[in-house]
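WARN no homologs supplied; continuing
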Amino acid sequence: MKHIILILMFLLSITSGYSLDNENVEPIIILKNATILDMVSDVGRKGTVIINGQIIQKITSENDFETPSNAITYDLTGKFIIPGLIDNHVHITHGSLKQAQDNLETALMNGVTGVRDMGGDGRMLALLKRNMLIGENNGPDVFFSTIIAGIKFFENDPRPGQVALGAEAGNVSWQWAIDKNSDFDSMVLQAKGLGATAIKIYTDVNKSLMNKVSQAAKKQGLKVWAHASIAPTRPLDVTNAGVDVMSHAGDFIQYELADDIKDRYAFSSKAEATKYKDQIGSIEFDIGNKKVKTLLSAMKKNNSYLDATLWVYTYRDDESALIRAQKATRLAYQHGVKIVAGSDHMINEENSDINIHNELALLVQAGLTNIDALRAATTNNAEGIGEESNIGSIEEGKLANLLVISSDPLLNITNTRKIQYVFKRGKVYKGIDSSRFAKKY
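OK structure emitted
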């Protein structure tokens, strides 16, 4: 009888996934007694998060669960759990593959569990996406775009060639030069086959072409990302084309108000370009202006998110541009436009600081509440990527992309830097406390 029972137990173990010795079962991770900022609510709540493999299995405020024998428990009394941060605007392939891998690993230890690359070498991005997904490299999950722009961009800008070495810039699956005769369906299908999440519409694309590209992308289930202003197309036409995320708060409202909009390739000298840029920057705007209200109302109606990239204006050491960008961000936010957080420059090479934390501080300075700044880097970014069912908030069934931090970010947004642990798809890493880099903006 005893032998029969042992045989039945063995058969049960191989059919149900349980082993008799539990050696092959992944441990359950229990994060207990923390304050959970799930991004669904505006406030935190005390509770416990139970992670099973890559997934958040249970969230509870009660000790109503039986702790498995193979569980690893973290007592997080006094600590806070927030979703992993997503940097909505990065460029990670303008160096070597090793540099990209190292920078992404640094970003992960600083709390970044996802990045949205806005134009790079698709071959490298596809490899990084695969390696981060399966854990061959340590780093955030990678979501990337294929750039679609007018022929003038590829003729005048050196950057496409830098990320198309060994191929023809503007004629590969991660960057396409287009005109009215282009086969948009074929281009989008090749981008999708490469593994791109979206197409990014860049410069020298008129209203008609933009609509055609956007329609082709949507038909294949790809997101559409773009700059908020793409000469000769105005921001209102960008949002009306169905663009999901519009980048750079900068002077996008002024470009809607300007009599004539030009791209960077329309000038014969740097002085001429600077003069035009100053003219654009000098245009006054407020919510009382009918065109401003029309633009922001359209963005809200069309669900076009604003990727403000405020940090890039501090990087360029242009205080007046930062002031204008923060004003535009504040008006958009007050008008109900969703804001997403992106740095446009993921890592500071001098000290390895990760700039999404600076972006959060600048968003708060612009007028966002702390919880909405956090949402800009979590739930809103997940929606802009199209991954809201998997990441961006702390909910049962979603991926266990979490940060454990030592202080409350609702009291001070720079507390997102005080990271003790990072969980990426359920795997735990020792976090980096980068609070020494926090700046007062």
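The mean pLDDT is 92.
OK
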